[in-house]
Design brief:
single chain; mainly beta; four-stranded antiparallel β-sheet; 11 strands
Length: 118
């Protein structure tokens, strides 16, 4: 089964930047969806940014202009560059993938904590 491993979380001051990475154990070429979600305490897990196999990229409104998602299929890795971080961005960030190589199952990483100090 495909495994996803996130890294890059941590503590940052408001206005600062972090770069998250998610590396898959298998080729990501067939991932139809390769995304970042986040979950704050007491809240549901929600989509932050997504890439599709066809190259479509979308963001939730609250991060547009501040976050940049990118995928490097040659390295089996998904990135999330987060700039101008706000306290409300604090959450556990999860990588998600779904596609032919996952058997169309939803695969999740273990999550990485992002804390933003005001």
């Amino acid at each position: 089964q495909v495994q996803l491993v996130e890294s890059g979380g941590g503590l940052v001051q408001a206005g600062g930047s972090l770069r998250l990475s998610c590396t898959a154990s298998e080729s990501t070429f067939s991932f139809s969806a390769f995304d970042w979600y986040r979950q704050a305490p007491g809240n549901q897990r929600t989509l932050v940014a997504t890439t599709t196999g066809g190259g479509i990229i979308q963001y939730v409104d609250s991060v547009k202009g501040r976050f940049t998602i990118s995928r490097d299929n040659a390295k089996n890795t998904l990135y999330l560059q987060m700039d101008r971080l706000k306290p409300e961005d604090a959450a556990v960030y999860y990588c998600h993938a779904r596609g032919l190589s996952t058997g169309w199952q939803h695969i999740w990483g273990q999550g990485t904590q992002v804390t933003v100090a005001s």
